[in-house]
């Protein structure tokens, strides 16, 4: 037995090493990015001036209203996801789904990208549903957001084209660097080479562990999307999508009126300026960081800089004060909702075990023949 254990030891070391490295990349990189961006964010900033702006100029009533709107966006997201889960035969109380959404954002503050896996596991465990089925619906939920952000980005480029062109003309170095990256042959050669390599590995090693896991993931994603096409309540699903993103946009719009100069930006340039900042802040959430802290403020600062020439006094300190206030209050709300969520989940586990209609009705063997 000793010989057998010793012979297996070398094969275990690479696997353990790979696990350690994957965990370091998953949980170590986001905090490094967050800290690094925050360090650059505050470098050269007059902290006393920023504190003065927040203390004397911020109208926190608008911030409070924006936070209420953000809670509604979470509720609408839960209502949208419930339609997908019901179509898959996973009958889940709306309150439980709302808690899973609150918990997702709270977990992402600590461990980015783990929140989605947590809510998948929570719903699958509570409703005794197949993890892959719930995961597919969650992937669909997130990819629908990606498509929405893409469409909003195109809209922002169309409606804000004059401001974007004006900003690039005022900052020729930025325009030159941007065009150099886009026109770089090395960029397109690298993208093409990576795509061809992925295709070659996919065909050469169809039964490898990575390819098999990827096939399973794509199958779950497809199942999640397929159910949207055949489920009842498609119109309501689209309505909830519009309400979710309408809440997000309205939330930021309201925040603009919390500070006099950002209110001037909204008043002079209209919803277009808010849309530009909104799209940039939405894109910043793709950066792996703790709850978007760091990238979000950078995005708002960059968006406001496009309109700074038309609003005297809109300095970097002022834009940073705005960004930090919005992000700070939103983060505080997510922490409070997270605490409430995990307290209620603990109570639910003790007193409300899944029975009857709250349990999943998906067949144990397969989810391919789920009826509408």
Structure summarized in a few sentences:
This protein is mainly α and 372 residues long. It has 15 helices and no strands. It has a domain of 210 residues.
Write structural notes for this entry.
By secondary structure, the protein is an all-alpha fold. It has a domain of 210 residues. It has 15 helices and no strands. The longest helix is centred in the first third of the chain and has 41 residues. The relative contact order is 0.15. The N terminus and C terminus are likely disordered.
Question: Helix and strand layout, with pairings?
Answer:
Elements: H1 2-42, H2 47-57, H3 60-87, H4 94-110, H5 114-126, H6 131-159, H7 161-170, H8 172-182, H9 185-204, H10 209-230, H11 234-256, H12 260-269, H13 271-284, H14 295-305, H15 316-351
Helix pairs in contact: 2-15, 3-4, 3-6, 3-11, 4-5, 4-15, 5-6, 6-10, 6-13, 11-13, 12-13, 13-14, 14-15
Count of alpha and pi helical runs: 15
Overall pLDDT metric: 80
Which structural class matches the secondary elements?
Answer: mainly alpha
Content of β-strand = under 5%
Low-confidence stretches: 1-12, 354-359, 363-372
Order of helices and strands: HHHHHHHHHHHHHHH
Radius of gyration: 24 Å
Helix content: over 70%
**Largest β-sheet summary:** none
Strands, count = 0
What is the overall shape? Answer: globular
Whole-Å distance between the termini? 54 Å
